[in-house]
Amino acid sequence: MERADDVYTKDGTTDITKAPANKKKTGTWKACFFILGEEISERLAYFGTSANLVNYLHQMLGLNNAAASKVVTNFQGTCYVSPLLGAFLADAYLGRYWTIAIFSIIYIMGMTLLTMSASIVGIKPSCHDGICHPTELEKTTFYIAIYLIALGTGGIKPCVSSFGADQFDDNDEVEKIKKSSFFNWFYLSISIGALIASSVLVWIQTSVGWGWGFGIPAVAMAIALMFFFVGTRFYRLQTPGGSPLIRMLQVLVASMRKWDVKPPADKSLLYETANEESNIKGSRKLTHTDKFSFLDKSAVETARDKVNGSVNPWRLCTVTQVEEIKSIIRLLPVWACCIMFTTAYSQMNTTFVLQGNTMDRYMGGNFKIPSASLIVFETISVILWVLTYDQLIIPFARKYTGHARGFTQLQRIGIGLVISTLSMVSAGVVEAVRLDYIKQKGYYDVKTIPMSIFWQVPQYFFIGCAGVFTLIGQVEFFYDQAPDAMRSLCSALLLMAAALGSYLSSFLVTIVTRNKKFGWITENLNKGHLDYFFWLLVILSIINFIVFLLVSRLYVYKKVIH
């Protein structure tokens, strides 16, 4: 006979009616089916906008190569900064379900406006003889649209992966194993959206029209939101824990107030709630760790900590509250090492596309491949490696490492960092060969040289493989190591590293193009040295990997009281 306590989840999740979540009726893959559907459509819309955006800016808004690249990387960067807002609202007040729903509506508004800016006369740039002359109104409408999209994605990005992982109870060993697989399938769903965007949508944008190319993902996003709502009765919801920023600030203030207090040698004497549950909604208790002991002062009880019998949270904090901020501090060095990876990864939508524009894009003599469509090989790489990782790599690695997941999360991230460096090496070699061919033939002023664009396939394949190891590893690592009531915020922190990576790419482009005539990335790439830019990224990636190895050796994993 099934015990009553086995009917409900033990991680504090509830259903949509705020009743304890029933294991049989909610969660696991039956809920994730709807969540993954939302993610596929959102990624379809995002990549349908960003994958070919550099060409839209060049053709329709008249921006040069360097300026178009900077607009794209700044847009991508903003898409990774805005999750800080969405994550704060999700963890503190709204919960992940309502945050996804509300920001999806904003996303759809942005996609609709973008479609209108590419379709309706008056806000669509007018073009004559292949040259467009956008007005200030047309430019403004376009920028409002893409930054509405950036705001909308800010509520979706930090919440969807965490919301999906919430559907598996950490206290149930069977469900915990399934959760690890969820992150692989989550990234696969991203790749499916990217595959459709980079092949079908890019072709539609190039061959049919930008209005159709932007309109189709707008409709897909609206359908996805309805699909997301259909799955409501199956979802498990984590209760918002209140403002994580205030809790962290309370620990810092309480520690400074007790700067002259010495924590006891017996750490069990530090303050913690007496009952089994933490006083932070939606969070389990955390075990004390020895590092950053100055913060332990905030959990030392003194005579002045209570006012009228109640604890003053600005003078006395629980061990769990202290460990929350310690967890964030421990994550920061790993987080910093994620920045350079994104800088390399972002080249897929900028310099890779510009490089491809100069190459022979014809297949079979008549069919011309849009350069941005080569991202399809990155997506194919992701699909192949996700399936291979789950079915072959994990069982094989487990024999030698003894680890249930084959590799630790940090090992998985590190492998991806190495592979991303190989992608930059591949891109650098292709560009060096391309420039050498131009030099030999004197093709400096030839717009398209007779060198197949399929030379780029290895660099896309490597970057896709790197994503399977590093990006999935990062998402799983930050979810596992984040305090329960700060998981959306930690996902946003990870996305912030991606934003800084995009901004770093934009900064590097600015530096290497300061000399308009002799810069590395010139308007005529045949007279530039894009290969130098790729070699610079190789050097920075190697330095970043060495630092990551040191950080990984020193990292202390989070411990939860079950």
UniProtKB/TrEMBL annotation:
Residue ranges crossing the lipid bilayer per the database entry: 97-116, 185-204, 210-230, 328-347, 367-389, 410-430, 460-479, 491-512, 532-556
Superkingdom of origin organism: Eukaryota
Chief location category: membrane
Pfam families for the chain: PTR2 (PF00854)
Topological relation to the membrane, as annotated: Multi-pass membrane protein
Keywords: Membrane, Transmembrane, Transmembrane helix
InterPro entries according to UniProt: MFS_trans_sf, POT_fam, PTR2_symporter_CS
Chloroplast as UniProt keyword: no
Compartments it resides in: Membrane
Family under the similarity heading: Belongs to the major facilitator superfamily. Phosphate:H(+) symporter (TC 2.A.1.9) family. Belongs to the major facilitator superfamily. Proton-dependent oligopeptide transporter (POT/PTR) (TC 2.A.17) family.
PANTHER family found in the cross-reference section: OLIGOPEPTIDE TRANSPORTER-RELATED
Name the UniProt record assigns to this protein: Protein NRT1/ PTR FAMILY 8.1-like
Protein source organism: Solanum pennellii (Tomato)
Gene (name only): LOC107030874
